[in-house]
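Hi, here's the filled form for the chain we discussed.

Project: internal
Contact: R.S.
Residues: 366
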Amino acid sequence: MKTNLLYIGLLAVVSGGLLTGCHSDEQTGERKKRTKKPVPQTYQVGEVLEQRLAPTIQLPGEFRAFQEVNLYPKASGFVEKVLVDRGSEVRKGQTLMVLEAPELEEQLVAARSKYLKAKVMLTASQDHYKRLLIGNRVPGSVSALDLETAKSRLMADSVALVGENANFQALQKLYSYLEVKAPFDGVITERNVHPGALVGSGAKLDRPMLVLQQHDRLRLLVDVPETYGSQVHRGSGIAFTVNSLPGKEFQGKVSRMSGNMDPQFRSETVEIDVSNPRRQFKPGMFAEIILSSNGAPETLVVPSSAVITSTERQYIIKLDDGKAKYIEVKQGHKEKGLTEVFGGIRANDKIIVNAREDIEEGTVIN
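And the returned structure, exactly as it came back:
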């Protein structure tokens, strides 16, 4: 019993000592917190400058074939010959494929026969009418009814000949479509049919028979943001680089501009014609466009760190009688740590360069 009492007493003494130590430590921590001095905030003060920025912009571009066409059959038939394949270089007017259509050939022969028959009938009508006219010189030898009938027959045969000739010419044109020819110089980049395949309006083709692209001249397409749209004009010089040819810079000129601002991306599509006789560029390749901006004269600029962008607005902190004042601005071009700003500021206004969102409006700046 004595032993238990002694154990309980020792436990109480140890617990009390621990509690006392903890309480002492807390008091010491609180005293340290009270004696810790706040770190003074430092502000870097600068001025609004009047300066022209002429930044160099890099924009992604993509090469496209100057001309590209998907070749589909104009007439129904079976593929007889395919004279080209993927990668074949062809010339304008060169025969690429030959189709066969026996029914069309028979229709063409029949149309030619009808045309020749109508031609013979017209010749006979003309001769008969001429003889009646000669006989009519003798009064009473030819009746007026016979002469009028011959004239009507001549006109009908003439109209029939025109109709048969039009039908014959149309079938001839359709028959010429059995030879698929290249509409321009280029390279076959895709082939999807082989001899024996049925093509034409009666056959469902998911893909074109052939794809022809012009490679000796390409279009370089680039989307210019709205901010820099006024800096690009037709004929403007453009430099660009290609990843597959490192260390080389190429030159070009703006050939066409869409004249329309894409409502989704707020950009205008610009085309640059690129001569490609050695085929060093290929459609589908990406390029890096180097666009030099002229900049706007008499523009106000501030260090980029002075502009605060929040979810609600963009602003800088101006010093007004030694106190912080928020001035809403809009940003323009950026170059080498400087940013164009537009708003209620003037040149030589004092601003905080190292601006932060935690600086409240009205704060005294020393």
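Let me know if anything looks off before we file it.
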